[in-house]
Known about the structure:
- This protein is mostly helical.
- It has helices spanning 24-34, 42-51, 55-65, 69-74, 76-92.
- Helix 1 packs antiparallel against helix 2.
Amino acid sequence: MTAPDHEHHAPRVEPAPRAGELSVRDRALLALERRSHAGPGAKERAIREELGISPVRYYQLLNALIDDERALREDPVTVNRLRRVRDAKRGRR
């Protein structure tokens, strides 16, 4: 009898989104943005722990995402709020 082959597991790969749908990561960005975060640093900690990215990268991705019409269809309340906040900041510059 031979020893069983050791199984090698490939890293988990995110499934590709279907046409017209957001990726799992994009949905996670919107979900995190919908939540309220108590206390200083809580949101940044959640970004690092839940998404595994830096807050700077999070905001880069989020800023691009809110211009995506798929994101607007997925979560119009959050996307429109973020667009208003961004537009207000641009108006103050």
